[in-house]
Write a structure and sequence with these properties.
Chain lengths: 111, 117
Amino acid sequence: KQEVTQIPAALSVPEGENLVLNCSFTDSAIYNLQWFRQDPGKGLTSLLLIQSSQREQTSGRLNASLDKSSGRSTLYIAASQPGDSATYLCAVRPRGNKLVFGAGTILRVKS
Amino acid sequence: AAGVIQSPRHLIKEKRETATLKCYPIPRHDTVYWYQQGPGQDPQFLISFYEKMQSDKGSIPDRFSAQQFSDYHSELNMSSLELGDSALYFCASSLSQGAAVGGNTIYFGEGSWLTVV
């Protein structure tokens, strides 16, 4: 059974810092991995999708890497801003249609 | 750009009542998913449809059923509601490219808040 773990569970940083969120998964047989952002009581906003054959994806200040063989992904956020404060969820897509989510990392960026 | 539309956004029901949630996927997306997110929990997959046929099933209770219609919108029907069904219900959609390609981005709606009292 695929399990996804995210570390740390919560993170508080001053504005301007670069930070790394970690995601690990137990079964490397995945099609892709997706990073989401969720604001309190809101929907999930897709940030980046990495296919199983890819090593990384970049979008603006965000960079996500994937090491499928070791079951790890990282989300790097450069020059963090208070508006980045949210819960960040990592999800893997094994065979089939469902996504398996991690519990998320709650990020707070202090101004 | 059009996103996934869910209705209603908020719903309050009493125990043992029935509730129906609606989802309108992004135009031309052929796959619809339903997820349930309890308070402080990560989203749990319930069920998905591809081209109006059920394609995958997760932890969906027998009291729940879902279907996708000819116009691709989907409905999640929940009967004999229990207090534990109180959660945020997400619908998501994607355009399938087949397993060989790895799958496209899955886009989520804003969710429907169900409170059972």
